[in-house]
Amino acid sequence: QVQLVESGGGLVQAGGSLRLSCAASGRTVSCDAVGWFRQAPGKEREFVAALSWSAGLTYYAESVKGRFTISRDNAKNTVYLQMNSLKPEDTAIYYCAARDAYYRDYSWTALYKYWGQGTQVTVSS
After folding, report:
1. Which residue in 49, 64, 106, 121 has its CB near the most CB atoms, within 10 A?
2. Are strands 119-124 and 10-13 parallel, antiparallel or unpaired?
3. Cα(85)–Cα(83) distance, rounded to whole angstroms?
4. What pLDDT, on the 0 to 100 scale, is given for residue 1?
C-alpha cells in the first residue's frame, strides 16, 4: 500500500505560481510512476503530468506544457508540481496518484492504483 497526501493548493491571481507537494509513504520502493490529475466542477478528471520513477522521464498534458513542471525529492519521498503562469482554466481540485505496475500509458486515470485526497487550486482573473 502507498499513501499519498497533497498540499500547497490555494487561491492565486492569473499569472501567478503555486507549488503542489505530494508526500508518499508506505511501499514507495515499488512505485512505477506518480502522476498529477485535476478535476474541475462538472468535468471529468484529467491528466496533468506524470513522472516515471525509475527512468525519471516526465510527461505533460498539452494544456500545461511549458508552464508546469513535475519533479521529485527521493530523500523526502515527495513529488512536486510547480505551476507557473496560472490561468483561470487551471482552477480545479488537483490529485496526486501513484501506481506500482508498469504501463506504457501515463495519462489514463484507471492505470493508477493509489490516490490522494486532493488539494484545491483556484485561479482568479
Report:
1. 49
2. parallel
3. 7
4. 84
